[in-house]
């Protein structure tokens, strides 16, 4: 059975249509394909398993060995998701083919039987699919998967897409010229995701999987093997593995599944490959060192010194992966493993919260790339005393290995697990088809069956009935045993540890922690103090949009309510309040960042985070906190039976906040550790510095230094955040499956019971955010790889809801810009793997919007990026985009908004702040038309308004010791370093 959900622990159409000659199939006229399973036949994925069939899937197998699964699903409406999985990834490569599996993924998109050179992306865009999200592929150690989420589908569009996919998979054009063109793009991808993190990842793989194929086959490959690739060598890899016997197709969507099966049969049944299939290579087993004896012998260990990275320790128990019989009994055992790990992780988290020697620690079990079955323990020491942190983590685990858990501990975790599985059943009618399509692919990859949500819940209930402290202890001991123990320690200090000291520390006997377990403690919402005297509803009225109702309380709190059963089991809650970033002074950057990490963790009233966790046991609740430019927000996804308690928590946080030193210190530690890594790569510098400089060095956007963080006291933190929580309007939005009248009564006792809010100070309410003054290119330096750089160019546009309809048209122009820049930098120059142009148009403030183009590239390509971005911006102000360019931009946008507008959460986001600013409500009208309908003349006018005569603000991030080419400094942004 597929892994249990981890809710507990992203032919070119310019040809004449006659050349695309396909005859659309009508589902109602179709014979049942002969390849579909017969009634009573055991589907191929359930062979040898007693896991109950998910009856909504239909399975089939073609005579050539290709297997498939199809399923009808209408979420979102009008979409079909297709996955084509090839049983070949990087582990299938020979030593001279490193990176070929991933290179092939690229080449299939470059040219194939029905698609000319570079026509795949524009073709899918014309069909409404967004590149990178709706149209994508992935290569892993064990497979390559081609993915298409096709929106606004009909039988003709589906058939055309299946034909195009069949041409890509069955007949790619693997010529020398195509390989030579695509290799630089793959090398750009390798460079952009390389550097210190990739280096550490490779060193960790080589240690943790020593002696196995996984240790030496990085999916992206090596420069040497990629540069040596030819059409013939890649063709040889393709011929060996791209065969029908190695292919599984998954199709799920809003059409008849018999149609899906018919099209698979039509376009893949005559796929024939000469010769017998090649046997899969031996991936190898994790083996103990020669001469080792005793339980859990320590094998390979590595100390990885990287001055720019925070400390991180990983150790694991590794045993061979073996094919299993996917039975109910086997899955009950998997759930006991999950229960055992949740118990341990709860204890580790409690130790970290209480001021332990590590920032975080967690244990996980994984079957990795059909190479090993491992239990991995990862933690971050707070100081250079990693030995103490390791001993503390091991002592918590030692107690779990020595003594069975208490019934009270088990019941707490079992309640958490039950909520997740029961919620899946409740929500099964609104689970997305793309998720089901992925589930089948993942099940095939791990060689297990697939199951319905009801089966997950049934197996859980069966396990729960049989679970005892003794058999959980037995499962825990199995988890923490293996053929060999291996470890890596990442440290910024060269003299902090040696391989010998690591091995000795892991081999040392450790005593079970006597205080690792959490004392049984019963906490109930019924025992909590009231927020205040229940308030009074002073107004109820329709909100002019559908069935949305507006409710206002005497204390000024306003609520928007939409109750329906369109999405069973789902309730979205959002609370907007206060002034957001505008509420802070420019010298409070550290307090802003620490609030994101510590404010919620500090608890409320007399309750700390541990008590809040106990309150939430057996419930589906959330407590996300965000700081926007114009408001703060609490967010949660909950359900009908937990809505009242969710609203109490949110209101109590505003009415009775708690100020606790422990979470503040933990937030400081996390921020300090993160700060170390920013300077090691162009992406890190962008994350650290871009907003600060883009907003004219407004220090509210500054990433605080460790010294700034350390200077914040608990009293200062409290004194700054207290007024921020108490002032400004409150808007509560509740959209989903719940009882509206019961919710209003709960609001009366929670948010309606809060004291009347103080108004935002005038300077906060009118707060503005500026934009950097264009001038010389801002140059920042990173300490990472000498071949890595990044470049940013940005133009100010607008903000606020006043011209929100213009912003939607500008989104179309941004997509045109994005397509042109990708073509220039990736397809033609091979200079950047993923350049991107994005529009930011804040709606809760009146200033600050930008169109920003960004790319990671070689330092020598930075001038090319600025030149191409300038060229495109200038061309758009002179010559409007073609009708075809507009179709490639508007079709994906239109389909994206059609899909997301079918859900309650979409309307929640669109209507937020509309009780305070009615322009938000008015802006909802015409949304789909604004994104999908435009003219070349409208685009020309927008380009002239925002790009003409306005030099882009520029920022370049280059390696230390290098200088930026003078060609890039003609116009840009003046700013000083810090």
Structure, explained:
This protein has 978 residues and is of the alpha+beta class. It has four domains: 17-268, 2-Layer Sandwich (Cytochrome Bc1 Complex, Chain A, domain 1); 298-507, Cytochrome Bc1 Complex, Chain A, domain 1, CATH 3.30.830; 525-765, 2-Layer Sandwich (Cytochrome Bc1 Complex, Chain A, domain 1), CATH 3.30.830.10; 774-973, Metalloenzyme, LuxS/M16 peptidase-like (Cytochrome Bc1 Complex, Chain A, domain 1, 2-Layer Sandwich), CATH 3.30.830. Helix 16 (589-598) crosses helix 19. It is globular and about 80 Å long. The protein starts with 57 loop residues before the first strand and ends in a 5-residue tail after the last strand. The model is unreliable at 5-28 and 967-978 (pLDDT under 50). This is Zinc protease. Keywords: Hydrolase, Metalloprotease, Protease, Signal, Zinc. One of its GO terms (molecular function) is metallopeptidase activity. Belongs to the peptidase M16 family.
Distance separating the two termini: 54 Å
- Top-tier CATH class of the largest domain: Alpha Beta
CATH topology title of the largest domain: Cytochrome Bc1 Complex, Chain A, domain 1
Q: Let me know the CATH homologous superfamily of the largest domain.
A: Metalloenzyme, LuxS/M16 peptidase-like
What oligomeric state do the depicted chains represent?
Answer: single chain
Q: What's the rounded overall pLDDT mean?
A: 93
Helix content: 25-40%
Number of strands: 25
Largest sheet: 7 strands, mixed
Count of alpha/pi helices: 31
> Rg from C-alpha positions?
29 Å
Name the beta content range. 15-25%
Helix/strand structural class: alpha+beta
Strand order of the largest sheet: 12-13-14-18-15-17-16
Instruction: Tell me the count of domains.
Output: 4
Q: Would you identify the CATH architecture of the largest domain?
A: 2-Layer Sandwich
The backbone outline, from C-alpha atoms, is globular
């Amino acid at each position: 059975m597929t892994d249990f959900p981890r809710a507990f622990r992203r032919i070119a159409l310019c040809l004449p249509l006659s050349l695309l000659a396909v005859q659309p199939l009508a589902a109602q006229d179709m014979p049942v394909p002969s390849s579909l399973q017969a009634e009573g036949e055991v589907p191929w994925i359930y062979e040898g398993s007693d896991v109950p069939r998910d009856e909504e899937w239909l399975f089939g197998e073609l005579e050539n060995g290709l297997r498939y699964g199809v399923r009808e699903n209408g979420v979102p409406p009008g979409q079909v998701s297709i996955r084509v999985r090839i049983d070949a990834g990087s582990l299938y490569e020979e030593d001279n083919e490193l990176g070929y599996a991933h290179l092939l993924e690229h080449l299939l998109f470059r040219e194939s039987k029905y698609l000319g050179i570079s026509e795949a992306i524009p073709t899918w865009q014309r069909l409404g699919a967004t590149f990178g999200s709706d149209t994508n592929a992935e290569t892993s150690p064990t497979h390559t998967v081609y993915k298409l989420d096709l929106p606004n589908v009909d039988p003709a569009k589906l058939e055309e897409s299946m034909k195009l996919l069949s041409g890509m998979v069955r007949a790619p054009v693997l010529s020398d010229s195509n390989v030579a063109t695509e290799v630089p793009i793959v090398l750009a991808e390798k460079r952009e995701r390389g550097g210190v993190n990739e280096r550490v990842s490779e060193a960790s793989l080589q240690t943790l999987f020593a002696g196995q194929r996984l240790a030496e086959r990085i999916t992206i490959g090596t420069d040497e093997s990629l540069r040596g690739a030819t059409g013939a060598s890649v063709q040889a890899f393709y011929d060996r593995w791209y065969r029908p016997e190695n292919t599984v197709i998954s199709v799920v969507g809003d059409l008849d599944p018999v149609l899906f099966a018919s099209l698979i049969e039509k376009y893949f049944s005559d796929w024939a490959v000469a010769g017998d299939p090649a046997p899969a290579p031996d991936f190898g087993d994790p083996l103990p060192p020669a001469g080792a004896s005793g339980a859990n012998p320590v094998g390979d260990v590595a100390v990885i010194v990287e001055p720019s990275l925070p400390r991180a320790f990983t150790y694991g128990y590794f045993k061979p992966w073996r094919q299993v019989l996917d039975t109910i009994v086997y899955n009950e055992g998997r759930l006991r493993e999950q229960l055992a790990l949740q118990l341990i992780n709860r204890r580790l988290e409690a130790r970290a919260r209480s001021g332990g020697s590590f920032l975080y620690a967690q244990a996980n079990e994984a079957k990795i790339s059909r190479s090993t079955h491992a239990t991995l323990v990862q933690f971050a020491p707070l100081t250079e005393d990693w030995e103490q942190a390791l001993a503390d983590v091991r002592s918590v685990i030692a107690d779990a290995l020595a003594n069975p858990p208490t019934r009270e501990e088990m019941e707490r975790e079992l309640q958490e697990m039950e909520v997740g599985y029961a919620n899946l059943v409740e929500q099964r009618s609104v689970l997305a088809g793309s998720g089901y399509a992925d589930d089948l692919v993942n099940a095939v990859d791990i060689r297990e069956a697939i199951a319905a949500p009801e089966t997950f819940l049934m197996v859980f209930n069966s396990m729960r009935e049989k679970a005892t402290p003794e058999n959980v202890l037995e499962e825990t001991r199995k988890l923490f045993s293996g053929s060999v123990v291996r470890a890596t320690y990442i440290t910024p200090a060269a003299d902090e540890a040696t391989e010998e000291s690591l091995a000795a520390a892991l081999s040392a006997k450790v005593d079970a922690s006597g205080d690792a377990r959490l004392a049984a403690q019963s906490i109930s919402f019924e025992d909590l103090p009231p927020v205040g005297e229940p308030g009074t509803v002073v107004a109820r009225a329709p909100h002019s949009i559908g069935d949305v109702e507006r409710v206002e309380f005497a204390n000024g709190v306003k609520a928007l309510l939409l109750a329906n059963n369109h999405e069973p089991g789902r309730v979205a809650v959002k609370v907007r309040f206060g002034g957001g970033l505008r509420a802070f002074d420019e010298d409070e950057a550290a307090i802003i960042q620490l609030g994101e990490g510590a404010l919620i963790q500090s608890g409320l009233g007399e309750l700390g985070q541990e008590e809040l966790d106990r309150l939430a046991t057996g419930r589906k609740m959330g407590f996300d906190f965000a700081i926007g430019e114009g408001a703060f927000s609490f967010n949660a996804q909950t359900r009908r039976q937990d809505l009242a308690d969710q609203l109490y928590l949110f209101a109590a946080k505003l009415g009775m906040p708690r100020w606790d030193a422990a979470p503040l210190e933990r937030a400081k530690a996390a921020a300090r550790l993160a700060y170390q890594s920013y300077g090691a790569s162009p992406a890190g510098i962008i994350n650290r510095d871009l907003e600060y400089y883009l907003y004219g060095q407004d220090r509210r956007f500054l990433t605080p230094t460790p010294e700034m963080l350390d200077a914040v006291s608990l009293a200062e933190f409290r004194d700054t955040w207290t007024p921020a929580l108490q002032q400004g309007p409150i808007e509560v939005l509740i959209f989903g499956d719940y009882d509206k009248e019961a919710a209003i009564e709960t609001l009366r006792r929670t948010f309606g019971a809060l004291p009347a809010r103080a108004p935002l100070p005038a300077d906060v309410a009118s707060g503005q955010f500026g934009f950097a003054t264009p001038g010389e290119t801002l140059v920042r330096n990173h300490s990472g790889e000498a071949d890595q750089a990044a470049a940013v160019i940005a133009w100010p546009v607008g903000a606020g809801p006043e011209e929100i309809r213009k912003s939607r048209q500008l989104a179309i122009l941004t997509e045109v810009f994005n397509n042109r820049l990708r073509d220039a930098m990736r397809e033609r120059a091979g200079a950047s793997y993923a350049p991107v142009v994005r529009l930011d148009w804040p709606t809760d403030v009146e200033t600050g919007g930008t169109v920003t183009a960004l790319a990671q590239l070689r330092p020598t390509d930075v001038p090319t990026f600025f030149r191409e971005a300038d060229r495109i911006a200038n061309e758009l102000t002179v010559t409007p985009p073609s009708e075809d360019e507009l179709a490639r931009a508007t079709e994906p946008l239109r389909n994206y908004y059609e899909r997301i507008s079918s859900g309650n959460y979409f309307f929640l986001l669109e209507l937020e702040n509309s009780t305070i600013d009615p322009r938000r409500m008015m802006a909802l009208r015409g949304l789909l038309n604004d994104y999908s309908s435009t003219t070349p003349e409208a685009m020309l006018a927008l380009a002239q308004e925002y790009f003409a005569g306005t030099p882009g603000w520029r920022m370049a991030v280059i390696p230390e010791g290098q200088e930026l080419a003078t060609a890039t400094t003609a116009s840009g942004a003046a700013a000083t370093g810090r």
